Every structure is written in structure tokens, then in C-alpha cells.
């Protein structure tokens, strides 16, 4: 680029339009350009300008040389691509531009040099070059330029998203929250009530079971003590070990010796979690009527890997895919909800992007409360595909935005199986342990007991979050789960259920 007063030089920088034009009070062009000075532009008392008429000639300086600005000792050596960045800017160098201590604070009218400070402040060029204010490097018209590298005055700082605009479609809420992903919550460790029994030996265990069933009568207490103190991965191998040792089927022998709910509970405990879930889904679908709550309970609370294993076992056991069975037994948007859940493709990332959670909350609001009718597909897409930590953030944003919990909005917008299914999905995602505490309470309250639900929840959650379920149960209903089971069941069935419960609170 061109500097006024520097004559064109061979191989140097040719004059270009848009350079630094002469300005009143600035550096007027002088014959011969900037006369040589010793060591460049040294700091001088009273800053810019040193004297009327510019810089007087001094010994040394930047004499015109062939080839432009050749490297000089202590100066700015040419580098490929211009001046390479250095840590902290341009350090003071002999003969260069020394950086004044404290820099040049912004002042009205630009960044003029102050008395007692020398050097040249480093400022980004504004429109029209280095300002047109007389007497310094101010922005044209005396407007303040702000901080180098920052936004223009009156513009928002980058990285801080503002609140959504308030309008008739979406109410304004929140704002100024960084959209940085949040780290997942710290793990609370093992929260199950049944743990691995140290030193368990399948061959010795099946011997105990054989003795308990051999001869006249059955020693139910021996069966309860054994199965109630073994984890699932220690119980399941007993079936193969029993057949290897005695040449008989353990499950068949147990069926012949036990009866009722106690039999159902014992047989459930000897299956793998996925096989047990597949059998429960089969029971919920086949026959007259459908246990919709069971379908939602299993499909909304299991991980992707667990659902995919359930699908595999269901197909091999019953010769039909789980999706086909659901499609043939349900209809409408409720069928679509179940089919979406049984794919096992939910996002399982643990990080949460708050800005995306706000967007999803807006979509749910626009699909329900802020619309005539309801766009069920939007609810389906978000509730079945997003990660559980993300959805918990969406529910929180939705409540802040609409002033209503999303479960209440669903109840206002939907009905029937779809309403109960959507609400169950939300409850399970919001607080899984509280959801299962509610399932257990409903299975035991009133006349009679829904034993299939009671058995399924106690067996499937005993090694996952039974301790948390007990806490939620006590908080919600004012008495312990242990106490309620004791009052609602009896006999050997009660004893084994209390083993799975793991204690009183």
C-alpha cells in the first residue's frame, strides 16, 4: 500500500488507492517523505504530533532503498504473508515501535496519543482509513470505535444468545444463557438392592434347589434364601447347571412344585432381563385387550441396546417381530408412539445444549398449546428421538416458557391411550425412579393387587435403581415400599418380594 511522502521505489510497494490520505492535524506530506530519523519513530514528549509541521529531519530513519523495506537490525523483518503474529502483539524492538505501558484506552474522538506516551497504538482501520478527526487517529466524525476485535457499538457480544423474540406465536422467556453443553450429572454408584453374592457356585446352588424340591413337600424357604441372595447373572446359569447335573429342566421342576404368584416370581427371576421383558410384552399384546401401560413402561425405560436385544429375542421366541405385533394390536398415533419407541434408536448422548432445548420447547408449544388442534407428530418426534438428559432440559424450558408443566399440556391436548402413553413417557424420562414408585403404588392400591406389574417392576429394577425407587415411594406416599408390600401380599410370595425390596426405610 502507499504511504504519503514515500516516493515509489524499485521493487517496493507501489502506490495504491485507499491508503492513508493526508488529514488535517495529522502527518502532512513533506518533500522527500519522512526524513531519516535515528531508530525509527522514537517516543517523544507530548506524543503526537511532536512539533508543528510533522517530524523534523533527524539522523537515521528509513532511507529509501532499492527493493522496498529491507530487513534492518531491530526492525520488522519481512516474512512470508506479512508480519507474523507474536505473543502479546509487537514487542518493543530496537528501532521499532515500542508498545507503551498500559496501552491506549479508548477516548472520545478516537485513540489520540497522550502526553508522556510514545509509540503508535495498534488499532484496526475504520471505514475510510485511520479516522478523519483532526489531530489524531479518531474515527470519522469523532465516533468511538470500541475495543479492537469486538463488535461494533450497540451490537450484542458474540457467544451470548439473546432471548427469543416475543410474538404471538412464541412467548418470550429466558435469555442470556450460554449454549455451552453441560456435563452429565455425577454417577451415584450402584443403586440396586440385589448384588452379586461373593463366592457363589452354580453347582452348589443347584444342589440346594434339588434338595428343596426332592421328596415330599417343598422347602420354599431354601428357595427364597438362595434366589433372594443371588444377582441375575448368578441366577440365570442355574438353569443350565441344573440340567447338566441332574438331566432335568429346572423351570419345569419349579412349576410342578410351586403355585400362584410365588411361582410366577421365581420363574421371572430365572430369566435374563431381555427375555423376561420380551415375554411381558408378548403377554401385554396377545389375547383380548392390550396392556398399554406395560408396553409404555418397558419401551420408555430401557436403553437402546436393551430394546434391540428384546426385539431379537421376541422374533426368535414368537416368530414375529415386536413391531408387527404392536402394529397389529394398536392403532393411530398411539401405535406410532410405540413403533417409534421399539426401534431402540434414541439419542443417548449425556451432554445438553440449552439453545437446542429451547428450540424443542418452542416446537412443542407451537404444536400444542399455541395451535388449534394438536400436531401429535411433533410430540412423537421429540419425545421418542431426543436423549433423556436433553428432554429433561426441554421440559424445564417448556414450563418456564408456557407457565405449565408439559404433562398438563398433553392432558389438555390429547386423550385416550395416546394421552396416557405420552404422559407416561414424560414421567419416565423426567424422573424414572418416581415413575416406577408410582407404578408400584398403583399395582397395590385399592381392592386387589396387579401382581404382574408388581412382579415385573420388582424383578426388573432390583439391580438398577431400587434404592432410589424406595426413596421416591416414601416421599410421595408417606410410607415405605417395604411396609406396603408387607400389608398387600402374604406368604412366600411376600418373603421373596421383600428380599428384592432390600429393606425398610
From TrEMBL:
<dbReference type="InterPro" id="IPR037104">
    <property type="entry name" value="Annexin_sf"/>
</dbReference>
<keyword id="KW-0041">Annexin</keyword>
<feature type="compositionally biased region" description="Gly residues">
    <location>
        <begin position="126"/>
        <end position="149"/>
    </location>
</feature>
<dbReference type="InterPro" id="IPR001464">
    <property type="entry name" value="Annexin"/>
</dbReference>
<dbReference type="InterPro" id="IPR018502">
    <property type="entry name" value="Annexin_repeat"/>
</dbReference>
<dbReference type="GO" id="GO:0012506">
    <property type="term" value="C:vesicle membrane"/>
</dbReference>
<feature type="region of interest" description="Disordered">
    <location>
        <begin position="94"/>
        <end position="197"/>
    </location>
</feature>
<feature type="compositionally biased region" description="Low complexity">
    <location>
        <begin position="63"/>
        <end position="75"/>
    </location>
</feature>
<dbReference type="GO" id="GO:0006909">
    <property type="term" value="P:phagocytosis"/>
</dbReference>
<dbReference type="GO" id="GO:0005634">
    <property type="term" value="C:nucleus"/>
</dbReference>
<keyword id="KW-0111">Calcium/phospholipid-binding</keyword>
<dbReference type="GO" id="GO:0005737">
    <property type="term" value="C:cytoplasm"/>
</dbReference>
<keyword id="KW-0677">Repeat</keyword>
<feature type="compositionally biased region" description="Low complexity">
    <location>
        <begin position="94"/>
        <end position="115"/>
    </location>
</feature>
<dbReference type="GO" id="GO:0005544">
    <property type="term" value="F:calcium-dependent phospholipid binding"/>
</dbReference>
<feature type="compositionally biased region" description="Pro residues">
    <location>
        <begin position="150"/>
        <end position="161"/>
    </location>
</feature>
<dbReference type="GO" id="GO:0032506">
    <property type="term" value="P:cytokinetic process"/>
</dbReference>
<feature type="compositionally biased region" description="Low complexity">
    <location>
        <begin position="42"/>
        <end position="55"/>
    </location>
</feature>
<dbReference type="Pfam" id="PF00191">
    <property type="entry name" value="Annexin"/>
</dbReference>
<dbReference type="GO" id="GO:0005886">
    <property type="term" value="C:plasma membrane"/>
</dbReference>
<protein>
    <recommendedName>
        <fullName>Annexin</fullName>
    </recommendedName>
</protein>
<comment type="similarity">
    <text>Belongs to the annexin family.</text>
</comment>
<dbReference type="GO" id="GO:0001786">
    <property type="term" value="F:phosphatidylserine binding"/>
</dbReference>
<dbReference type="InterPro" id="IPR018252">
    <property type="entry name" value="Annexin_repeat_CS"/>
</dbReference>
<feature type="compositionally biased region" description="Low complexity">
    <location>
        <begin position="162"/>
        <end position="171"/>
    </location>
</feature>
<feature type="region of interest" description="Disordered">
    <location>
        <begin position="1"/>
        <end position="75"/>
    </location>
</feature>
<feature type="compositionally biased region" description="Low complexity">
    <location>
        <begin position="1"/>
        <end position="34"/>
    </location>
</feature>
<keyword id="KW-0106">Calcium</keyword>
<dbReference type="GO" id="GO:0005509">
    <property type="term" value="F:calcium ion binding"/>
</dbReference>
